From TrEMBL:
GO terms for molecular function: 1,4-alpha-glucan branching enzyme activity; cation binding; hydrolase activity, hydrolyzing O-glycosyl compounds. Pfam families: Alpha-amylase, Alpha-amylase_C, CBM_48. The lineage of its organism: Eukaryota, Fungi, Dikarya, Basidiomycota, Agaricomycotina. It catalyses: Transfers a segment of a (1->4)-alpha-D-glucan chain to a primary hydroxy group in a similar glucan chain. This is 1,4-alpha-glucan-branching enzyme. Gene3D superfamilies: Glycosidases, Golgi alpha-mannosidase II, Immunoglobulins.
């Protein structure tokens, strides 16, 4: 199929000089599709690699095990089932470097390898050295730190009565996603690792109550080092056992679906852990099985291995990995981690992106990685179409601003649904860290919130897990710091620092949600101003769990002021659910007054007004409005239930437009807007 440049040029005429590069990307994806069609029978079959590789149980309880390890000259399956004998179960190798063994059922007709028993593959390489590895496609690994930090592979084949039975269909794809970014392990108040069961019982209801429609689960793909936050994956097909069993994760996802919540997996295909004994590094004794050879296969900053996206078997492994999490665990989509690192040969290291188009096309681009991402998104759309509103959602974590990232692959885009607006949280932290309130530049603030590519959806957020990690501070901590420990009780003095912190925390979130994108994201606990950073147990902190938990107790305490921030987050999200501003066209900013510190914009039929001035309130302040009529206040950050001073009487608010031009709008209203207050108005007639 020839590439037609016209749809791309219609989106962005400035891409004309780069049409040859875009056409090359498109053809590369099409070449992959043709190759897979001709050699594998199509993407549907190709992406079910887990049914061919790894351990699979047949209809008569025979077990077939296959592993790709072309450098090995001998291989055998060892484990508890054969007393770890390297001779009793030899494997045979085909012309493609794939080893295979079929193990007939035992005398009782059951699978010869017991459920949850330990196994490995033992190989001999050309040097004569014997190496032993965990199966690369293994679906269950466990760690016993009292014995060793190295994971054990287990054959997960529970009896039918113990397998989780799905109860709920997938929810309809949200009109606009409001993402609750969370990590099961830290989702307990206790100083330990939380479980899938506890998350299902305790946290899902909080998420639903707050008005989020989407959960993003982090740290699920198994990783040897807890403090890596899940970003150094060792076993790509295994759900982390530190939180519980695979069946318990299925229960979590299914329960969320029953509540109407979409569930996304934080998928890590940008790199892999360097572990050899319980990872896929040096798997068959070479450094270039799954990864690039030599320095090209190493990420200097992350100290990890980089996939060879040009390899047929690597692409099978990664595409099948996506399919596995959808089919086995019913995930509704993925947040692709480290997309910037994937798309560029420099991996974003030491590189600042100015937005110049020359940065996105040319020698710095990893065309194989871009081709893989396009192929992955194309496959997901093909296999899980949006019929009935149940298609797969994909989000790209990209800081570079790559054009066409969120444009469909059929016209030359990379196929993601959303990109993370990573410049927005950076802006907020920089402001809070470096500028006094009176120095805030609202022209720049609005530009950063509005600055996204035409036709491409962004997910805006004031802060994510990145800003909550040790070494940085959350927005609440930047605002209130040590006073959070002494003055967050309603029984204590409401100091100027606390008053400012409560007000700006709410306003920052509302303007980010209202103006910043087509989706919204929050990291768990930050909605109520979680008082402390996130720091996983590690050698540097004495393996402490003190900061690797969420202190739900403080938001549940009616005497503490955290409840006000929590209530505001809930009010904001449910209001969006009613008025759908995230799925509306981008907002129109009619006013950004640097002296008065007033910002006003319209979006989704609503009028948003913000007074960021530290000490000035304004009476009868004129705000331009496009659509004439009667307006009333539907949200005030100064309301008593949100910890405000209730200087605005919402119940009596009514504003009739005057048909005169103001701020480039055809009409205006006049409002009382107290200091450090945000108002949202809706038309009543």
């Amino acid at each position: 199929m020839n590439f037609d440049p016209n749809p791309v040029l219609k989106l962005d005429g400035y891409l004309k000089p780069n049409i040859p590069a875009i056409a090359t990307r498109y053809r590369q994806m099409r070449d992959w599709q043709t190759k897979i069609e001709n050699t594998e029978g199509g993407l549907e079959k190709f992406s079910r690699g887990y049914e061919r590789f790894g351990l699979n149980v047949g209809p008569n309880n025979e077990i077939t095990y296959r592993e790709w390890a072309p450098n090995a000259i001998k291989a055998s399956l060892i484990g508890d089932f054969n007393d770890w004998s390297r001779d009793s179960h030899p494997m045979t190798k085909n012309n493609f470097g794939v080893w295979e063994i079929v193990i007939p059922p035992g005398s009782n007709g059951q699978a010869a390898i017991p459920h949850d028993s330990k196994i490995k593959i033992s190989m001999v390489i050309p040097s004569g050295e014997r190496i032993e590895r965990l199966p690369a496609w293994i679906t269950r690994v466990t760690q016993d730190l009292s014995v060793s930090p190295i994971y054990d592979a287990r054959f997960w084949n529970p009896p039918e009565a113990e397998r989780y039975k799905w109860k709920h269909p997938r929810p309809t794809k949200p009109r606009a996603i409001k993402v609750y970014e969370c990590h099961v392990g830290i989702s307990t108040t206790e100083m330990r690792v939380g479980t899938y069961k506890e998350f299902t019982r305790d946290v899902l209801k909080r998420i639903k109550d707050l008005g989020y429609n989407t959960i993003q689960l982090m740290g699920i793909m198994e990783h040897a080092y807890y403090a890596s936050f899940g970003y150094l994956v060792t076993s790509f097909f295994a759900a982390s056992s530190r939180y519980g069993t695979p069946e318990e994760l299925k229960e979590l996802v299914d329960t969320a679906h029953g509540m109407g919540l979409t569930v996304l997996l934080d998928v890590v295909h940008s790199h892999a852990c360097k572990n050899v004994l319980d990872g896929i590094n040096m798997y068959d004794g070479t450094d270039h099985l799954y990864f690039h050879e030599g320095s090209k296969g190493n990420h200097e900053l992350w100290d990890s291995r980089l996939f060879n996206y040009g390899s047929h078997e690597v692409v099978r492994f990664l595409l099948s990995n996506l399919r596995w999490w959808i089919e086995e665990y019913h995930f509704d989509g993925f947040r692709f981690d480290g997309v910037t690192s994937m798309m560029y040969l420099h991996h974003g290291i030491g590189t600042g992106f100015s937005g110049g188009y020359h940065e996105y096309f040319g020698d710095a681009v990893d065309t194989e990685a871009v081709g893989y991402l396009m192929l992955a998104n194309s496959m997901l759309r093909q296999l899980y179409p949006d019929e009935g509103g149940q298609g797969i959602i994909t989000i790209a974590e990209d800081v570079s601003g790559m054009p066409l990232l969120c444009i469909t692959t059929d016209i030359g885009g990379m196929g993601f649904d959303y990109r993370l607006a990573m410049a927005v949280p950076d802006m907020w932290i920089k402001l809070l860290k470096e500028k006094k309130d009176e120095e805030w530049d609202f022209g720049n603030i609005c530009h950063t919130l509005e600055n996204r590519r035409y036709g491409e959806k962004s997910i805006a957020y004031a802060e994510s897990h990145d800003q909550a990690l040790v070494g940085d501070k959350t927005i609440a901590f930047w605002l209130m710091d040590k006073e959070m420990y002494t003055n967050m009780s309603d029984l204590t003095e409401r100091t100027p620092i606390i008053d400012r912190g409560l007000a700006l925390h709410k306003m920052i979130r509302l303007i980010t949600s209202g103006l910043g994108g087509e989706g919204y994201l929050n990291f768990e606990g930050n909605e109520f101003g979680h008082p402390e950073w996130l720091d996983f147990p590690r050698e540097g902190n004495g393996d402490s769990f003190k900061y690797a938990r969420r202190q739900w107790n403080i938001v549940d305490d009616p005497m503490l002021r955290y409840k006000y921030l929590n209530e505001f987050d809930k009010g904001m999200n449910w209001l969006e659910d009613k008025y759908h501003w995230l799925s509306a066209a981008p907002g129109y900013v009619s006013l950004k007054h640097e002296g008065d510190k007033i910002v006003a914009f319209e979006r989704g039929g609503l009028v948003f007004i913000f007074n960021f001035h530290p000490d000035k309130s304004f009476t009868d302040y004129r705000i331009g409005v496009d659509v004439p009529g009667d307006y009333r206040i539907i949200l005030s950050s100064d309301a008593k239930e949100y910890g405000g001073w209730e200087r605005v009487d919402v119940s009596k608010s009514q504003f009739l437009t005057t048909p005169e031009s103001w701020a480039n709008r055809g009409n205006y209203i006049q409002v009382y807007i107290p200091t450090r207050t945000a108002l949202v108005l809706a038309k009543t007639s």
